[in-house]
Amino acid sequence: MKKRHQRLFLVLGTLAGVSVATALVLNAFRDNMTFFITPSEVQAKSEVPDRHFRIGGLVEEGSVERADDSTKVSFRVTDTESSVPVTFEGILPDLFSEGEGVVVEGEISPEGVFQADNVMARHDADYMPTAAKEAIEQAEGSAEAIGDY
Amino acid sequence: MWDGIGDFLAMGGYALYVWGAFGMVALGLLLEGILVARRRRQVRARLQRQSRRPAAARNQGE
Amino acid sequence: MTLEAERLACRRGELHLFEGVGFALAAGELLFVRGRNGSGKTTLLRTLCGLSEPARGQVRWLGQDIRRLDERAQRQMLYLGHQDAVKDELTPLENLQVHQGLRGERSTLDERLDALEQAGLGGCEEIPARYLSQGQRRRTALARLLISPAALWVLDEPLTALDRRAVAWLFGRIAEHLRRGGLVVTTSHQSIDGLPEPRILELD
Amino acid sequence: MVRPLWTLLQRDISLIVTRRQDVLTVVAFFVIVITLFPLAIGPEPEKLRTIAPGAVWVAAALASLISLDRLFADDWRDGTLEQLALAPQPLALTALAKVLAHWLSLGLPLVILSPALGYALGLQGIELAVLAGSLLLGTPVLSLLGAVGAAMTLGVRGGGALMALLILPLYVPVLILGAGAVNEAMFAAPYQAHLSLLGALLAVALPLLPLAIAGALRITLD
Amino acid sequence: MTGRSIPWLKFTAPANFYTLAQRLVPWLWPAAALCAVAGLYMGFFVAPPDHQQGDAYRILFIHVPTAWMGMLLYLLLAAYGAIFLVWRIKMADIMARAIAPTGALMTFLSLWTGALWGAPTWGTFWVWDARLTSTLILLFLFLGYMALHAASDDREKGGRAASLLAIIGAVNVPIIYFSVEWWYNLHQGVSVMRSDGPSMADSMLAALLLMIAAFWIYAGAIVLRRAQAEALSREARTEWAQAAAAGRLTREQRERAAVGIEGNRPPLESGGQT
Fold it and tell me: Does A3 touch chain C (CB under 8 A)?
């Protein structure tokens, strides 16, 4: 076999490998897989999965209730259309606050209450002084698009 | 912006985190600087020793 | 059919071994590389067959750069190094067969048995190599020379562990190869009386 | 050109199989690492089920690593590697044949055994199939990556530990996707995407990594 | 080896590099210090606290530069590795080897500062998300490069093997990033290099950019210094290196070294010709 042929085989092999890989990657992303599901999807599901899963959304304004004598907390996660009640026991991250993004991991109980064993705050990527942020929020209204996540 | 040195050092209650981060960076860069300077000195000293005794230096490499 | 080396310089780690080595070896010629321990004989031989890359210079075999030989030119060259490349688990016969298979060479069972017989391994063709002596393992490796169609042999210290009879046999074999127009590059610490008149390359 | 590779494949497999203890050691290692998990974590079925995909995959990665350590070592010591480098066929193909032989004799047994171990950890039905399937796609990539490390660390001080440092980080994507596929299957979620991506890794690794192995071998032999 | 005669390649001669670095570095230190002082002043005394994170966000001024430097240095390492593998230019290996420790340090510092920033804001020092995981792997790759380079007895061989590893790692890190991204995702989005412009107050951005500049210049200076030491030690037996060590490298010596006439070491007589 000549060197020229070897190189040809090499190029062809690499091309074949890369194109098969591309096809497979595209195929993978056609299957719509998401990191978390939204409260609307939880409501829409006729059958609630009996597994750990994650719900992402915003902490509903005015829904946070903390127990006095323990670290128990309950709140609702909303995507502005529907919301899911969540209970959690443990230390919440500092960025957890009403109206902010959150992802909760856990299972849903038969009563439809989501029992989280992990709460993750998603902070947005804006850095600005408090006054500026308030000005922007007043200008835009406080409704934030969930699509950012 | 800060009410005195104490307020500055307190960093709005995040002193441990902020100063821990900046301190480690300063320490790391300082240490790296010292190590590189030392290595440079050592190499130069070795080469100067060698050039004084060229015959011994030959074939010795490092 | 020539092996050419042009202004070769080689180094081993930080050590500069030699530089400016050049020669052209034609068909039917034997090159004997001589030098004290550590003068770079093995490195030179490995460079000549393309295993090591020279710091400077070039080796050409059949007009091609030794590091980029095509399949045909590669098959025309046989290298035997310090290590025998003999597998403990396999018998001499299997070793020979595998070695030929790896190089894409063909031979019949009779030819292989004959080669082993000539190399002085008659009777132990079917014994796993781990039971053989050092000399017998060396002979197993050398048996390749009998059935390989390669024109150029690069033999690094081929006499190691061989007894006098085996040495005589090998010398005869080399002489015959040269008569047929083959090329041999070799090195040894032992006496080479009995070989055809070699060209000598001194490394010091 | 096919014949030399076929010869090499046969030789390597027969060498590995003759030294039966190699296969046994690797398989035993795989099984023992997996049995350590229930012993360390406790026999709660629910907990075991949760960690099952990760446990099997970690055990497979470690088993692959320790068995690859010696992929080229014997050939290098007795001089066969020089002969392979000087053989007429490209060294990359030779390397591929050796990795294939290694995987067939030491990787495939793990794949075949994995459903049984998965079952012991509480996986069921389709999950077992996905586990075996993910290992089938993933372990060849592990073998190819490990072979690069084995070729790089030949004859280098502290070879084995160094190889783990070099290669384990590169195992990460395979591990994540492999264990991920089983995880998805465990929750009746679509797992095809993970398997597709594993397949994509294999498709890229198969033509490219043999070149890297050949490059590393040439550096070692130089 | 035909490449040796291309004129621009003479800049790859260690002797020329040494002199260039010798001239450059004395300017780099004060420049880095200046940027750092200005950046720290802006960051601590001009930039106001963040609306969400208060003063904790100030860690950003060192976290972002170190994280960038870590990645950038790894890309440089892989690029120099590739150059060394393909063209065998010794200087490329010297540079790659000089980059690795700084890269490892930067990557470590970005992990450290990130953890201390994550603790008050996310509520955890560490999460296994794509960026953190791939940065951790990056650190292992730097360490692996250094270990492999150091483990080989032959510096040239060690350099080539390590370069190969660096290149494979450069391909693998994005794959790791995406595989983890896919599997778990918590980290914030991109905040500086966004198509709609940086989403940051001006004073914060100014401080950040100054700090980034400071880290760039610092990394440049320290890498050049380390490469100088490495070049000297590798060429220990040459005339230029010994002159350079004594602090009196002449232009003539340098040019002679660049074209490959090495002084002080008489050519070994190879009896050579049959």
Answer: yes
Q: How far away is chain E from the Cα of D37, in angstroms, using its nearest Cα?
A: 21
Chains with 3 or more CB pairs closer than 8 angstroms to C?
Answer: A, B, D, E
Interface confidence, given as ipTM, is 0.81
Considering its fold, how many domains does chain C have in total? 2
pLDDT at E265: 42
> String of b and e for A77-114 (b: at least 16 CB within 10 Å)?
bbbeebbbbbbbeeebbbbbeeeebbbbbbebeeeeeb
Mean pLDDT over the full length of chain B: 83
C95 and C184 belong to one structural domain: no
Whether B50 and chain E come into contact, CB under 8 Å, resolves to yes
Contacts of C15 in chain B (CB under 8 A): 59, 61
Q: Where are the domains of chain D?
A: 2-221
- Interchain proximity A95–E60, CB inside 8 Å: no
Are D204 and A31 in contact (CB < 8 Å)?
Answer: no
Residues forming a β-bridge with C153: C78, C184
Q: Is residue C81 part of a domain?
A: no
One domain, residues C6 and C69: yes
Q: Which residues of D touch E133 (CB under 8 A)?
A: 172
Q: What pLDDT digit, counting tens, does each position of E144-188 carry?
A: 999 999 988 888 889 999 999 999 999 888 888 887 766 653 333
C38 touches chain B (CB under 8 A): no
DSSP state of A107: E
Q: Chain E contacts of D165, Cβ < 8 Å?
A: 140, 143-144, 147
Give the number of C-alpha atoms closer than 13 A to the C-alpha of residue A144, restricted to the C-beta side: 17
Query: Does C83 map to a domain?
Result: no
DSSP E108-135: HHHHHHHHHHHHHHTS-S----HHHHHH
B6 touches chain E (CB under 8 A): no
- E52 touching A (Cβ < 8 Å): yes
What's the pTM?
A: 0.84
- By Cβ distance, the residue of D82, D88, D222 closest to C104 is D88
- Looking at residue C54, the DSSP 8-state letter turns out to be P
Among C104, C127, C149, give the residue marking a domain's end: C149
The vertex-A110 CA angle with A108 and A116, nearest 5°, equals 25
Confidence at residue A144, expressed as pLDDT on a 0 to 100 scale? 39
Among the partner-chain residues A20, A52, A53, the one whose CB lies closest to the CB of D203 is A20
Q: With an 8 Å Cβ cutoff, is D189 touching chain E?
A: no
pLDDT (tens digit, 9 = 90+) per residue, E210-246?
999 999 999 999 999 999 999 998 888 888 888 888 8
Secondary structure letter of residue E45 according to DSSP: I
pLDDT digits (tens, 9 = 90+) for A55-104: 878 888 888 888 887 778 999 988 888 888 999 988 777 678 888 778 78
Beta-carbon neighbour count of residue A137 at 10 Å? 14
Looking at chain C, which residue has its C-alpha nearest residue A4? Answer: C70
